[in-house]
């Protein structure tokens, strides 16, 4: 089976629930605790664009139960590091309460801030990136060419960012709206070959629109560091269970696409415009409205869209032994709603400060 690694970005908040720029202190606390060398589950802890964020990255695991252990352990260890820096860790894709952004130190971050201006100053968003192993770039691009139309449904399942600068944005994932301000973000068309993919990336870097290949922010891409396809469309999930669900579905999508390519099934020829529309639709309503699904990319109720995704990857889930777990996790998600749904419920009861308090607890639940 293909291994999975999960990267999650989190916010750091103070006692009032406002983002606080102490990532450097949190990472140093993690390193002092021996976190970099510690073989226990949970992976590492790294800086992100802003000092109000940190990121974990789990080691690659094959068994889904091990992936779940790594995600939960990573959250606990990151929370401990945040507490050591007088902050709290919270898995929210945007902050309900307005607060400052403080650029992380370093020449690369400074160059990014200079190049992208307001987009950087207002960029305080947290995503979930799932790495799924592939044999080589050829298989990876064959996968990318086939999974694009399904990625908006993953976004809808993970939607966890209804609030922006103290207001309800009207979106289930306003993070997706903010993230797509980057010039290299979003869905992509069919490449047809690894050479064509690398040519496209090189062209974006040569144009100066992307400062380097690390700034290729496609919804799914070949990883720069690992032999993986990296699916980047999801919000960071409020609950670890939902992160595991997204990871399992990502592996199912990659395995299904790789099998289709091996069997000579050509990718559907899709234009970027309907994929962008599908991504917007998923960000707007999450699981509360219609979603656009392949092959027609016409609207269907969200439950039907999720069923279609599950049916599409079912053989891969069965072969991995993941189907029952995925069905159980989906049932829990339908029962309580997405992170965006939960946040809005908490806000009705206690306002935005209550959202953060509840979310801090849910992050480690």
How would you explain this protein's 3D organization?
The chain is an alpha+beta fold and 365 residues long. The protein has one domain: Creatine Kinase, Chain A, domain 2 (2-Layer Sandwich). Strands 1, 2, 3, 4, 5, 8 and 9 form a 7-stranded antiparallel beta sheet that branches. Strands 6-7 form a two-stranded antiparallel ribbon. Helix 6 packs parallel to helix 10 and helix 9 crosses helix 11. The radius of gyration is 19 Å and the shape is globular. The protein starts with a strand and ends with a helix. The model has no long low-confidence stretch (mean pLDDT 96).
> Beta fraction of the residues?
5-15%
Structural class: alpha+beta
C-alpha geometry = globular
Tell me the number of structural domains: 1
- Count the DSSP helices: 13
Task: Give the fraction of residues assigned to helices.
Answer: 40-55%
Low-confidence parts lasting 5 or more residues at pLDDT below 50?
A: none
Whole-angstrom Rg: 19 Å
Q: Just name the CATH architecture.
A: 2-Layer Sandwich
| CATH class identity | Alpha Beta
In short:
It catalyses: L-cysteine + L-glutamate + ATP = gamma-L-glutamyl-L-cysteine + ADP + phosphate + H(+). With 365 residues, this protein is an alpha+beta fold.
Describe the SSE topology.
Elements: E1 4-13, H1 23-32, E2 44-47, E3 53-57, H2 64-84, E4 88-90, H3 107-116, H4 118-121, E5 127-133, H5 137-147, H6 151-158, E6 163-164, E7 167-168, H7 174-179, H8 194-207, E8 220-222, E9 228-235, H9 240-262, H10 272-285, E10 290-293, E11 298-301, H11 302-320, H12 323-336, H13 339-363
Antiparallel strand pairs: 1-3, 1-4, 1-5, 2-3, 5-9, 6-7, 8-9, 10-11
Helix pairs in contact: 1-2, 2-9, 5-9, 6-10, 9-11, 9-12
Function: ATP-dependent carboxylate-amine ligase which exhibits weak glutamate--cysteine ligase activity.
Family: Belongs to the glutamate--cysteine ligase type 2 family. YbdK subfamily.
Organism: Cellulomonas iranensis
